[in-house]
Specification:
There is one protein chain. This protein has 2 domains: 5-131, Jelly Rolls, CATH 2.60.120.380; 142-404, Alpha/Beta hydrolase fold, catalytic domain (Rossmann fold, 3-Layer(aba) Sandwich), CATH 3.40.50.1820. Helices cover 26% and strands 26% of the residues. The strands form 5 sheets. It has a 6-stranded parallel beta sheet. A 4-stranded antiparallel beta sheet has the order 4-11-6-9, with no helix packed on it. The longest helix has 16 residues, at 186-201. By secondary structure, it is of the alpha/beta class. The protein contains 10 helices and 19 strands. The protein has helices at 164-171, 186-201, 216-227, 248-253, 264-277, 283-290, 295-304, 326-331, 342-351, 391-404; strands spanning 5-6, 20-22, 28-31, 44-49, 54-61, 66-72, 78-83, 89-95, 100-104, 109-117, 121-131, 142-145, 153-154, 158-159, 175-176, 209-214, 234-240, 312-318, 368-373.
Length: 407
């Protein structure tokens, strides 16, 4: 039986363990054709290592965990290796039938398992976590997109997604964040988000991403996915409290809703509360920004921003209650509207029904509808939250669900 040794070729884009085989004397015995990526390796997979004398499979795992890989049914010796997506070798070993090979992953996400054999053969590949198995991961990283008037840190004091990045990274997940213009229409913000993604992908560790957008961030995610993702890097879009069908608060604030039977005092209170919530110095700044969130504007937006068939879309809305609405409170885990949103919540309750203070439950539905959280618009990101909604547990559950979906 031919003895195998490893020769690494240089001058290529990344290292490769499958480049060349030598005999015991170090003489080349032939170039192995590069194998195309085959099925994803979740736990156990029956494969055929064919004309390329090997097989390449993506798999995912958590940074800091140790995975053991083994082969069964291998009729010929071979080399098994784990590589990053850019081709850097994390570890390799000569393998025979039934042997096990372990690698500790440096970060959470996707990697390649490559098996090179001397002759085409059928075999079974297995992947098993042996250490650090409690750590969380998704196949593709999660990127958080903030909403209107937001930034990576809200009003310069706390994270917009308050504590979410730190919590999820401590769990093991790979998380991306960024900041775009807080008062900007969605197409302009989406261009800025696309630049953030370019930078995020520059290290070659990942090839797709899960976008999680709150409020206008969800619109930004949809626009980016539809118009600014030629390489199809977006795997999923999850929106939270996003006004997909617009919000009457925007129509009122922009002076677009007239003769609706709403009192002038209610309108003034709603606009004032909205300006107070977003911490802007003038009503004019917020009026200019929210024109694009009015129902008519969002109807046009939805026509121009279609969903992509290869992307998983899902959404959460939010429902809150007035302080003395005891029946609503009883139904909704005692969730009380944040004080600065009380007027807009009442306005939306009259015009559109259940809402989170800025966006109705109905308007927030997009893709797979996950329902309504017992949380107002601020609670959804952990701001001004003095009641029982645990936003950190919510984001941990969403990350775990993305993993269950294979995303």
């Amino acid at each position: 039986m031919r003895a195998l040794a490893l020769v690494l070729l240089t001058g290529c884009s990344g290292s490769s363990l499958s480049s060349r085989l030598t005999d015991a004397d170090g003489d080349a015995v032939g170039q192995i054709p590069e194998c195309q990526e085959s099925a994803f390796l979740a736990d156990t997979l029956d494969v055929y290592a064919g004309a390329c004398h090997g097989t390449v499979h993506a798999f995912a795992g958590a940074g800091g965990s140790t995975l053991a890989f083994s082969t069964e049914g291998l009729a010929t010796p071979g080399i098994i290796s784990v590589e990053t997506l850019s081709g850097d070798v994390l570890g390799w070993d000569l393998t025979a039938d039934g042997t096990s090979f372990e690698v500790e992953l440096p970060w959470s996400g996707e990697f390649f398992l490559r098996v090179d054999v001397d002759e085409p053969t059928e075999l079974t590949l297995s992947r098993e976590c042996v250490a650090g198995c409690e750590r969380g991961y998704t196949r593709y990283p999660i990127f958080l997109l903030h909403g209107m008037a937001g930034t990576d840190t809200f009003v310069g004091a706390v994270d917009y997604f308050n504590g979410v990045k730190d919590t999820l990274e401590a769990d093991g997940y790979t998380i991306g964040v960024g900041a775009v213009d807080p008062f900007q229409i969605t197409p302009g913000r989406a261009v800025q988000w696309a630049s953030h993604l370019d930078a995020f992908f520059a290290d070659g560790r990942h090839r797709k991403v899960n976008l999680v957008g709150h409020s206008q961030g969800g619109m930004d995610a949809r626009y980016l996915t539809a118009h600014l993702d030629p390489d199809q890097r977006v795997a999923s879009v999850l929106t939270i409290g996003t006004p997909h069908r617009g919000t009457a608060v925007a129509a009122v604030g922009a002076g677009l809703l007239q003769h609706s039977g709403i009192t002038e005092a209610m309108v003034e209170a709603a606009i004032g509360g909205l300006a107070s919530f977003y911490d802007v110095e003038s009503d004019e700044a917020i009026v200019e920004q929210i024109q694009g969130l009015a129902p008519d504007a969002m109807e046009e937006f939805n026509t121009l921003v279609p969903d992509r068939a290869d992307v998983y879309y899902a959404s959460w809305g939010g429902k809150s209650c007035q302080l003395l609405d005891f029946f609503c409170l009883w139904q909704n885990d005692g969730e009380v509207i944040t004080a600065p949103l009380a007027a807009t919540h009442l306005l939306l309750k009259v015009l559109e029904g259940d809402n989170d203070g800025l966006v109705s439950v109905e308007s927030a539905r997009w893709g797979v509808d996950y329902g309504a959280l017992p949380a107002d618009h601020a609670d959804q990101i952990g701001l001004l939250n003095v009641f029982d909604f645990d936003h950190l547990a919510f984001y941990e559950e969403e990350a775990a669900w993305l993993r269950e979906l294979g995303l």
